[in-house]
Amino acid sequence: MREWTHAEHAAAVATEIARMADVLKGRDMSVAVRTCPGWDLARLVTHTGGVHRWVAAMVRDLAERRYDRDGMDMGLPTDPGGYAAWLAEGAAFLPEALLSQDPEASMWSWAGEKRVRFWSRRMLHETLVHRVDAELALGVPVVIDERVAADGVEEFLDVLPYVKWNPDVAEIRGGGETISLQADTGAGWVITLDPDRFHHRRSLQPGTVTVRAATSADLLQVVWGRRSPDDYAIEGDGGLFGWWRGLTQI
């Protein structure tokens, strides 16, 4: 796997926002989103577009604190028929905001990486996962670039320790057991459960339990809870993976 630059992440953000808006154009916004229980497409769009505007504002200001997203005027159209176009606007203003700042500049984030570059990567995968949600809701094919997907699996593992809104994450500890995520396309990660924490590394080695899938795109959907691991080969202690997956719903 090759490392991404901030500029590459920002460019991919624009591509993913445009793809998501395209999927939603002309659609019934009342369609239920089964991968986000209780949400419909309208809620999915307003959440995703709202996050784009929230992050763009903080990046422009190099915010030292979290802005109140609920208190921001997002300029949401009154007619849901305009939601897809409203979402599409982010393909211009969000990358522009991200590229307007030094990627190494300090700013607030909820994870360990407190620099502008955190947000270019986070916004790529936030948008990608919600584009997948929309496609699954509408029954249209899900196509994910393999390089983007591999970065997305690793980003999930990178941010997982900082997910304070799900207290279950703090329970992901063990006695050295390993969970291996392997794609036939050549990407792989091993998560090690230590008594006080967990950590991960790139590796093609099997683990106490190994999940094998055809692509990183498949693994991305598994770790984000968008596909069942039962669809793929599980070798070893399947109960361990079920336990881990149950604690990692973010």
TrEMBL record:
<dbReference type="InterPro" id="IPR034660">
    <property type="entry name" value="DinB/YfiT-like"/>
</dbReference>
<feature type="domain" description="MDMPI C-terminal">
    <location>
        <begin position="147"/>
        <end position="240"/>
    </location>
</feature>
<dbReference type="InterPro" id="IPR017517">
    <property type="entry name" value="Maleyloyr_isom"/>
</dbReference>
<dbReference type="GO" id="GO:0016853">
    <property type="term" value="F:isomerase activity"/>
</dbReference>
<keyword id="KW-0413">Isomerase</keyword>
<dbReference type="InterPro" id="IPR024344">
    <property type="entry name" value="MDMPI_metal-binding"/>
</dbReference>
<dbReference type="InterPro" id="IPR010872">
    <property type="entry name" value="MDMPI_C-term_domain"/>
</dbReference>
<dbReference type="Pfam" id="PF11716">
    <property type="entry name" value="MDMPI_N"/>
</dbReference>
<feature type="domain" description="Mycothiol-dependent maleylpyruvate isomerase metal-binding">
    <location>
        <begin position="11"/>
        <end position="134"/>
    </location>
</feature>
<dbReference type="Pfam" id="PF07398">
    <property type="entry name" value="MDMPI_C"/>
</dbReference>
<protein>
    <submittedName>
        <fullName>Maleylpyruvate isomerase family mycothiol-dependent enzyme</fullName>
    </submittedName>
</protein>
